[in-house]
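Need tokens for this chain, all 85 residues.
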Amino acid sequence: MACHDCSQGWFWKKLGRCKRCMDQLTSLSVVCWVVWYFWFRDTPSSTGSIALLIAGFACNALLFLHLWMKFVVLPFKKRQGDKRD
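Here are the structure tokens for all 85 residues:
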């Protein structure tokens, strides 16, 4: 990725800090599910259908981790840091 947060640091330090990543994951997730619904829902055991299901779930899981870090973990850590000072 081209942003400062994504080009540095370990995996857990990147989560929840990059809006570009979250936008891309949202787009990929929507595209995967729309393509699966319109072209592969009638044949759920085909290779293409299974690949799209796995890709859709992977995008959703990573997006969930990003959103969890952004709206739950990072604000909690920030409040905890303010109370310790």
